Amino acid sequence: MEIPYTISTRPDTGLWNAKIGIWLFLASEVMLFGGLFSAYVFLRLDAPPGRWPHGLLNVPVGTMNTAILIMSSVTVVLAWAALKMRRYRVYWWYMLATITCGVIFLVVKLAYEWPQKFDHFGAYIKSEALEKYEQYLGNHRLEEKGLPPRLEITGHLHNREALNDPNIKEYEVALDPVNADPTNPAMDRPHFLYVPPTDKIAKIDKEDVERATMFLPTHNTYFASYFTITGLHGLHVLAGVLVFIYMWLPVSKKLYQHNPEHLANRVEVSGLFWHFVDLVWIFVFPLFYLL
Amino acid sequence: MNNPPDISQDPAEHEEYAHNVQKHVRGYLVVGALLLTFTGITVALSYVDFGTRKANIGVAMLVATLKAGLVAAIFMHLAAEKRLIYRVLIFTGFFVLGLFWLIFLAWYDPITR
Protein backbone atom coordinates (compact mmCIF):
# COMPACT_ATOMS: atom_id res chain seq x y z
CA MET A 1 0.00 0.00 0.00
CA GLU A 2 1.28 3.45 -0.88
CA ILE A 3 1.60 6.05 1.82
CA PRO A 4 -0.56 8.97 0.65
CA TYR A 5 0.52 12.60 0.30
CA THR A 6 4.30 12.05 0.41
CA ILE A 7 4.82 14.82 -2.12
CA SER A 8 1.42 16.19 -2.96
CA THR A 9 -0.54 18.43 -0.63
CA ARG A 10 -3.33 17.01 1.43
CA PRO A 11 -6.30 19.30 0.80
CA ASP A 12 -7.53 19.71 4.39
CA THR A 13 -4.15 20.41 6.04
CA GLY A 14 -2.54 22.20 3.11
CA LEU A 15 0.64 20.20 3.73
CA TRP A 16 2.22 16.92 2.71
CA ASN A 17 1.84 14.43 5.54
CA ALA A 18 5.42 14.10 6.79
CA LYS A 19 5.65 17.84 7.26
CA ILE A 20 2.75 18.06 9.67
CA GLY A 21 4.03 14.85 11.31
CA ILE A 22 7.49 16.23 12.02
CA TRP A 23 6.11 19.50 13.38
CA LEU A 24 3.81 17.66 15.79
CA PHE A 25 6.82 15.61 16.88
CA LEU A 26 8.94 18.75 17.30
CA ALA A 27 6.15 20.30 19.37
CA SER A 28 6.43 17.33 21.76
CA GLU A 29 10.21 17.75 21.76
CA VAL A 30 9.83 21.39 22.75
CA MET A 31 7.78 20.22 25.72
CA LEU A 32 10.41 17.62 26.64
CA PHE A 33 13.34 20.05 26.60
CA GLY A 34 11.14 22.83 27.98
CA GLY A 35 10.53 20.74 31.08
CA LEU A 36 14.24 20.10 31.54
CA PHE A 37 15.16 23.76 31.05
CA SER A 38 12.43 24.78 33.46
CA ALA A 39 13.94 22.38 36.03
CA TYR A 40 17.36 23.88 35.33
CA VAL A 41 16.11 27.42 35.97
CA PHE A 42 14.37 26.31 39.16
CA LEU A 43 17.43 24.48 40.52
CA ARG A 44 19.72 27.33 39.63
CA LEU A 45 17.61 30.15 41.04
CA ASP A 46 17.11 28.28 44.31
CA ALA A 47 20.75 27.24 44.71
CA PRO A 48 22.17 28.71 47.96
CA PRO A 49 25.15 31.09 47.54
CA GLY A 50 28.24 29.20 46.41
CA ARG A 51 26.30 26.09 45.47
CA TRP A 52 26.09 26.72 41.73
CA PRO A 53 29.57 26.19 40.25
CA HIS A 54 31.01 28.28 37.43
CA GLY A 55 33.75 27.84 34.90
CA LEU A 56 34.04 24.07 35.17
CA LEU A 57 33.48 23.33 31.49
CA ASN A 58 35.92 23.74 28.66
CA VAL A 59 34.82 26.85 26.74
CA PRO A 60 37.05 26.54 23.62
CA VAL A 61 35.91 22.95 23.09
CA GLY A 62 32.26 23.92 23.68
CA THR A 63 32.60 26.81 21.22
CA MET A 64 34.09 24.48 18.64
CA ASN A 65 31.22 22.02 19.07
CA THR A 66 28.71 24.87 18.71
CA ALA A 67 30.35 25.93 15.45
CA ILE A 68 30.33 22.32 14.21
CA LEU A 69 26.60 21.98 14.86
CA ILE A 70 25.87 25.30 13.10
CA MET A 71 27.91 24.24 10.09
CA SER A 72 26.08 20.92 9.95
CA SER A 73 22.79 22.82 9.95
CA VAL A 74 24.01 24.76 6.92
CA THR A 75 25.21 21.64 5.10
CA VAL A 76 21.93 19.79 5.64
CA VAL A 77 19.88 22.67 4.23
CA LEU A 78 22.30 22.84 1.29
CA ALA A 79 21.90 19.09 0.79
CA TRP A 80 18.16 19.62 0.59
CA ALA A 81 18.55 22.51 -1.85
CA ALA A 82 20.82 20.33 -4.02
CA LEU A 83 18.08 17.70 -4.19
CA LYS A 84 15.56 20.37 -5.13
CA MET A 85 17.88 21.29 -7.99
CA ARG A 86 18.22 17.58 -8.83
CA ARG A 87 21.93 17.38 -8.22
CA TYR A 88 22.35 14.06 -6.45
CA ARG A 89 26.15 14.10 -6.38
CA VAL A 90 26.21 17.48 -4.61
CA TYR A 91 23.54 16.24 -2.21
CA TRP A 92 25.66 13.19 -1.43
CA TRP A 93 28.69 15.29 -0.47
CA TYR A 94 26.71 17.73 1.67
CA MET A 95 25.07 14.82 3.44
CA LEU A 96 28.46 13.25 4.12
CA ALA A 97 29.64 16.59 5.54
CA THR A 98 26.58 16.71 7.82
CA ILE A 99 27.13 13.17 9.07
CA THR A 100 30.82 13.92 9.70
CA CYS A 101 29.94 17.02 11.75
CA GLY A 102 27.46 15.04 13.84
CA VAL A 103 30.00 12.29 14.49
CA ILE A 104 32.71 14.80 15.46
CA PHE A 105 30.30 16.45 17.90
CA LEU A 106 29.51 13.12 19.55
CA VAL A 107 33.13 12.00 19.69
CA VAL A 108 34.22 15.26 21.34
CA LYS A 109 31.40 14.94 23.86
CA LEU A 110 31.77 11.24 24.70
CA ALA A 111 35.49 10.66 24.26
CA TYR A 112 36.81 13.96 25.61
CA GLU A 113 34.45 16.22 27.56
CA TRP A 114 32.55 13.70 29.65
CA PRO A 115 35.56 11.48 30.55
CA GLN A 116 37.46 14.59 31.61
CA LYS A 117 34.66 15.33 34.06
CA PHE A 118 34.51 11.76 35.34
CA ASP A 119 38.21 12.11 36.13
CA HIS A 120 37.86 15.35 38.11
CA PHE A 121 37.31 15.44 41.85
CA GLY A 122 35.50 17.83 44.15
CA ALA A 123 34.98 17.89 47.92
CA TYR A 124 32.37 20.09 49.59
CA ILE A 125 33.69 21.25 52.95
CA LYS A 126 31.42 21.24 56.01
CA SER A 127 30.53 24.78 57.01
CA GLU A 128 32.22 24.47 60.43
CA ALA A 129 35.48 23.38 58.74
CA LEU A 130 35.62 26.10 56.10
CA GLU A 131 37.99 28.20 58.22
CA LYS A 132 40.49 25.33 58.39
CA TYR A 133 40.81 25.33 54.61
CA GLU A 134 40.80 29.10 54.20
CA GLN A 135 44.21 28.95 52.43
CA TYR A 136 42.53 27.00 49.60
CA LEU A 137 39.19 28.82 49.60
CA GLY A 138 40.01 32.50 50.13
CA ASN A 139 36.59 33.22 51.59
CA HIS A 140 37.69 36.21 53.72
CA ARG A 141 38.54 38.11 50.60
CA LEU A 142 35.37 37.02 48.77
CA GLU A 143 33.26 38.16 51.72
CA GLU A 144 34.92 41.60 51.68
CA LYS A 145 34.14 41.92 48.00
CA GLY A 146 30.56 40.76 48.46
CA LEU A 147 31.04 37.65 46.31
CA PRO A 148 29.47 34.24 47.04
CA PRO A 149 31.67 31.92 49.14
CA ARG A 150 33.66 28.93 47.89
CA LEU A 151 32.50 25.74 49.56
CA GLU A 152 34.32 23.21 47.42
CA ILE A 153 37.90 22.16 46.80
CA THR A 154 38.45 20.65 43.37
CA GLY A 155 41.28 19.08 41.41
CA HIS A 156 42.86 15.76 40.57
CA LEU A 157 42.42 13.07 43.21
CA HIS A 158 45.76 11.34 43.81
CA ASN A 159 44.54 8.56 46.07
CA ARG A 160 41.46 7.48 44.22
CA GLU A 161 41.07 4.44 46.44
CA ALA A 162 40.13 6.89 49.21
CA LEU A 163 36.69 7.21 47.64
CA ASN A 164 35.74 3.65 48.64
CA ASP A 165 38.18 2.69 51.41
CA PRO A 166 36.94 3.78 54.86
CA ASN A 167 40.42 3.12 56.36
CA ILE A 168 41.91 6.00 54.36
CA LYS A 169 41.21 9.12 56.38
CA GLU A 170 42.05 11.86 53.88
CA TYR A 171 41.90 12.86 50.24
CA GLU A 172 45.08 13.96 48.47
CA VAL A 173 44.15 16.48 45.82
CA ALA A 174 46.32 18.22 43.21
CA LEU A 175 44.51 21.54 43.36
CA ASP A 176 42.80 23.35 40.52
CA PRO A 177 44.22 26.86 39.94
CA VAL A 178 41.27 28.45 41.72
CA ASN A 179 42.06 26.56 44.97
CA ALA A 180 45.85 26.79 44.57
CA ASP A 181 45.73 30.59 44.44
CA PRO A 182 42.31 31.56 45.83
CA THR A 183 43.06 35.20 46.66
CA ASN A 184 44.21 36.03 43.14
CA PRO A 185 41.65 38.52 41.72
CA ALA A 186 41.83 36.65 38.41
CA MET A 187 40.00 33.80 40.16
CA ASP A 188 37.03 35.94 41.23
CA ARG A 189 35.34 35.21 37.97
CA PRO A 190 35.66 31.59 36.91
CA HIS A 191 38.41 30.71 34.45
CA PHE A 192 37.07 30.30 30.96
CA LEU A 193 40.03 28.53 29.45
CA TYR A 194 40.64 25.06 30.74
CA VAL A 195 43.68 25.01 33.00
CA PRO A 196 44.85 21.64 34.33
CA PRO A 197 45.30 21.07 38.08
CA THR A 198 48.49 22.49 39.58
CA ASP A 199 51.28 20.60 41.38
CA LYS A 200 50.14 21.98 44.71
CA ILE A 201 48.76 19.15 46.82
CA ALA A 202 46.20 19.58 49.56
CA LYS A 203 45.23 16.99 52.13
CA ILE A 204 41.59 17.09 53.12
CA ASP A 205 40.35 15.19 56.14
CA LYS A 206 37.34 13.09 55.35
CA GLU A 207 35.83 14.26 58.62
CA ASP A 208 35.73 17.83 57.30
CA VAL A 209 34.01 16.83 54.09
CA GLU A 210 30.28 17.12 53.63
CA ARG A 211 30.29 15.28 50.32
CA ALA A 212 33.04 14.29 47.90
CA THR A 213 32.76 12.55 44.55
CA MET A 214 34.15 12.70 41.06
CA PHE A 215 32.29 15.10 38.74
CA LEU A 216 29.42 12.68 38.16
CA PRO A 217 25.71 13.49 37.90
CA THR A 218 25.44 12.82 41.62
CA HIS A 219 28.06 15.46 42.48
CA ASN A 220 25.69 18.43 42.54
CA THR A 221 22.56 19.79 40.87
CA TYR A 222 24.71 21.56 38.28
CA PHE A 223 26.24 18.33 37.02
CA ALA A 224 22.94 16.48 37.35
CA SER A 225 21.27 18.95 34.98
CA TYR A 226 24.37 19.19 32.76
CA PHE A 227 24.57 15.44 32.18
CA THR A 228 20.80 15.04 31.80
CA ILE A 229 20.39 17.81 29.25
CA THR A 230 23.59 17.23 27.27
CA GLY A 231 22.97 13.48 27.43
CA LEU A 232 19.48 13.77 26.01
CA HIS A 233 20.75 16.25 23.44
CA GLY A 234 23.54 13.82 22.52
CA LEU A 235 20.97 11.06 21.98
CA HIS A 236 19.18 13.38 19.57
CA VAL A 237 22.42 14.03 17.68
CA LEU A 238 22.98 10.27 17.47
CA ALA A 239 19.44 9.71 16.17
CA GLY A 240 19.90 12.45 13.56
CA VAL A 241 23.21 10.95 12.41
CA LEU A 242 21.62 7.49 12.03
CA VAL A 243 18.75 8.89 9.96
CA PHE A 244 21.16 10.86 7.77
CA ILE A 245 23.33 7.79 7.22
CA TYR A 246 20.26 5.93 6.01
CA MET A 247 19.45 8.74 3.58
CA TRP A 248 23.02 8.86 2.36
CA LEU A 249 23.42 5.13 1.67
CA PRO A 250 22.80 3.73 -1.84
CA VAL A 251 19.18 2.96 -0.90
CA SER A 252 18.48 6.71 -1.15
CA LYS A 253 19.76 6.71 -4.74
CA LYS A 254 17.06 4.20 -5.60
CA LEU A 255 14.37 6.42 -4.17
CA TYR A 256 15.91 9.40 -5.93
CA GLN A 257 15.71 7.69 -9.31
CA HIS A 258 12.17 6.58 -8.63
CA ASN A 259 10.84 9.77 -7.03
CA PRO A 260 13.36 12.57 -6.35
CA GLU A 261 10.85 14.88 -4.70
CA HIS A 262 10.03 12.20 -2.15
CA LEU A 263 13.68 11.98 -1.11
CA ALA A 264 13.89 15.79 -0.99
CA ASN A 265 10.91 15.86 1.37
CA ARG A 266 12.46 13.19 3.58
CA VAL A 267 15.63 15.23 3.79
CA GLU A 268 13.58 18.33 4.57
CA VAL A 269 11.80 16.77 7.57
CA SER A 270 14.92 15.13 8.96
CA GLY A 271 16.64 18.47 8.41
CA LEU A 272 13.89 20.16 10.46
CA PHE A 273 14.68 17.74 13.28
CA TRP A 274 18.39 18.48 12.95
CA HIS A 275 17.83 22.25 13.09
CA PHE A 276 15.82 21.74 16.24
CA VAL A 277 18.73 19.84 17.80
CA ASP A 278 20.99 22.75 16.82
CA LEU A 279 18.49 25.19 18.31
CA VAL A 280 18.51 23.38 21.68
CA TRP A 281 22.30 23.51 21.73
CA ILE A 282 22.22 27.27 21.09
CA PHE A 283 20.66 27.59 24.58
CA VAL A 284 22.64 24.78 26.25
CA PHE A 285 25.99 26.29 25.32
CA PRO A 286 25.72 29.68 27.08
CA LEU A 287 23.71 28.33 30.02
CA PHE A 288 26.16 25.60 30.98
CA TYR A 289 29.50 26.69 29.56
CA LEU A 290 29.54 30.45 29.81
CA LEU A 291 27.34 31.72 32.61
CA MET B 1 12.78 35.32 2.88
CA ASN B 2 10.38 33.04 1.10
CA ASN B 3 11.00 29.38 0.56
CA PRO B 4 11.95 27.96 -2.78
CA PRO B 5 8.74 27.06 -4.63
CA ASP B 6 7.91 23.46 -5.40
CA ILE B 7 9.81 22.19 -8.37
CA SER B 8 8.19 22.50 -11.76
CA GLN B 9 7.36 19.31 -13.63
CA ASP B 10 7.99 21.08 -16.92
CA PRO B 11 11.67 20.70 -17.93
CA ALA B 12 11.63 24.06 -19.72
CA GLU B 13 10.88 25.83 -16.47
CA HIS B 14 13.40 23.80 -14.52
CA GLU B 15 16.35 25.97 -15.50
CA GLU B 16 14.71 29.04 -14.05
CA TYR B 17 13.68 27.07 -10.96
CA ALA B 18 17.24 25.88 -10.30
CA HIS B 19 18.42 29.46 -10.57
CA ASN B 20 15.81 30.45 -8.00
CA VAL B 21 16.95 27.81 -5.49
CA GLN B 22 20.52 28.97 -6.03
CA LYS B 23 19.51 32.39 -4.70
CA HIS B 24 18.18 30.77 -1.53
CA VAL B 25 21.43 28.87 -1.11
CA ARG B 26 23.26 32.19 -0.85
CA GLY B 27 20.82 33.22 1.88
CA TYR B 28 21.50 30.01 3.83
CA LEU B 29 25.24 30.62 3.68
CA VAL B 30 24.79 34.19 4.94
CA VAL B 31 22.67 32.96 7.86
CA GLY B 32 25.27 30.29 8.66
CA ALA B 33 27.99 32.95 8.76
CA LEU B 34 25.78 35.16 10.96
CA LEU B 35 25.21 32.30 13.40
CA LEU B 36 28.94 31.64 13.68
CA THR B 37 29.55 35.35 14.26
CA PHE B 38 26.91 35.47 16.99
CA THR B 39 28.51 32.44 18.65
CA GLY B 40 31.77 34.38 18.78
CA ILE B 41 29.91 37.41 20.17
CA THR B 42 28.27 35.28 22.90
CA VAL B 43 31.64 33.95 24.03
CA ALA B 44 33.23 37.42 23.93
CA LEU B 45 30.34 38.97 25.89
CA SER B 46 30.68 36.35 28.62
CA TYR B 47 34.11 37.84 29.41
CA VAL B 48 32.57 41.29 29.82
CA ASP B 49 31.25 42.03 33.30
CA PHE B 50 27.82 43.67 32.99
CA GLY B 51 27.68 44.34 36.72
CA THR B 52 25.61 41.42 37.93
CA ARG B 53 25.48 37.85 36.75
CA LYS B 54 21.78 38.32 36.04
CA ALA B 55 22.65 41.03 33.52
CA ASN B 56 25.20 38.75 31.86
CA ILE B 57 22.64 35.95 31.64
CA GLY B 58 20.09 38.37 30.17
CA VAL B 59 22.48 39.52 27.44
CA ALA B 60 23.54 35.95 26.59
CA MET B 61 19.91 34.78 26.40
CA LEU B 62 19.07 37.71 24.15
CA VAL B 63 21.79 36.72 21.68
CA ALA B 64 20.77 33.04 21.95
CA THR B 65 17.13 33.92 21.22
CA LEU B 66 18.23 35.93 18.19
CA LYS B 67 20.25 32.94 16.94
CA ALA B 68 17.38 30.54 17.60
CA GLY B 69 15.07 32.92 15.72
CA LEU B 70 17.36 32.87 12.70
CA VAL B 71 17.52 29.06 12.70
CA ALA B 72 13.75 28.76 13.05
CA ALA B 73 12.87 31.45 10.49
CA ILE B 74 15.35 30.60 7.75
CA PHE B 75 16.64 27.04 8.15
CA MET B 76 13.32 25.69 9.40
CA HIS B 77 11.40 27.84 6.90
CA LEU B 78 9.13 29.30 9.56
CA ALA B 79 9.38 32.74 7.94
CA ALA B 80 6.85 31.50 5.38
CA GLU B 81 5.00 28.39 6.43
CA LYS B 82 1.45 27.11 6.21
CA ARG B 83 -1.06 28.34 8.76
CA LEU B 84 -1.61 24.94 10.36
CA ILE B 85 2.01 24.77 11.51
CA TYR B 86 1.79 28.19 13.13
CA ARG B 87 -1.32 27.02 14.96
CA VAL B 88 0.50 23.96 16.30
CA LEU B 89 3.37 26.15 17.45
CA ILE B 90 1.15 28.70 19.18
CA PHE B 91 -0.27 25.88 21.31
CA THR B 92 3.23 24.58 21.98
CA GLY B 93 4.41 28.02 23.03
CA PHE B 94 1.49 28.37 25.40
CA PHE B 95 2.13 25.04 27.09
CA VAL B 96 5.87 25.47 27.29
CA LEU B 97 5.31 28.78 29.07
CA GLY B 98 3.16 26.74 31.45
CA LEU B 99 6.21 24.58 32.20
CA PHE B 100 8.17 27.67 33.22
CA TRP B 101 5.21 28.95 35.19
CA LEU B 102 5.63 25.85 37.40
CA ILE B 103 8.70 27.56 38.87
CA PHE B 104 6.50 30.35 40.21
CA LEU B 105 3.98 27.84 41.50
CA ALA B 106 6.76 26.12 43.43
CA TRP B 107 7.84 29.42 44.97
CA TYR B 108 4.35 30.20 46.15
CA ASP B 109 3.94 26.83 47.81
CA PRO B 110 2.27 27.86 51.10
CA ILE B 111 2.86 24.57 52.91
CA THR B 112 6.62 24.10 52.84
CA ARG B 113 7.67 27.73 52.43
Which features characterize this protein?
A: about 290 residues, alpha+beta, Four Helix Bundle (Hemerythrin (Met), subunit A), 2 domains, five-stranded antiparallel sheet, B: about 110 residues, mainly alpha, flat
Describe the protein's architecture and organization.
The complex is a heterodimer of chains A (291) and B (113). Chain A is of the alpha+beta class. Chain A has 2 domains: 17-118 and 220-290, Four Helix Bundle (Hemerythrin (Met), subunit A); 121-213, no CATH class. Chain A is built from 9 helices and 5 strands, in the order αααβααββαββααα. The model of chain A has no long low-confidence stretch (mean pLDDT 91). Chain B has 2 domains: 1-81; 82-113. Helices cover 75% and strands 0% of the residues of chain B. Classes of the chains: A alpha+beta (291), B mainly alpha (113).
Brief write-up:
The complex is a heterodimer of chains A (291) and B (113). Chain A is 58% helix and 10% strand.
Sheet of most strands of chain A: 5 strands, antiparallel
Runs of chain A in which pLDDT lies below 50 for 5 or more consecutive residues are none
Secondary structure: helix percent of chain A: 55-70%
**Structural category of chain B:** mainly alpha
Number of domains of chain A: 2
The largest inter-chain interface, given as chain pair and residues per side, is:
A-B, 47 and 51 residues
Subunit arrangement of the protein: heterodimer
Order of helices and strands of chain A: HHHEHHEEHEEHHH
- How large is the count of helical segments of chain B? 3
Chain-wise SSE layout:
The complex is a heterodimer of chains A (291) and B (113).
Chain A (H helix, E strand, L loop, with lengths): L16 H29 L13 H26 L3 H31 L2 E5 L8 H4 L1 H6 L7 E6 L12 E6 L1 H4 L20 E5 L3 E6 L6 H28 L1 H9 L1 H31 L1
Antiparallel strand pairs in A: 1-2, 1-5, 2-3, 3-4
Helix pairs in contact in A: 1-7, 1-9, 2-3, 2-9, 3-7, 7-9, 8-9
Chain B lengths: L10 H37 L5 H23 L7 H25 L6
Helix pairs in contact in B: 1-2
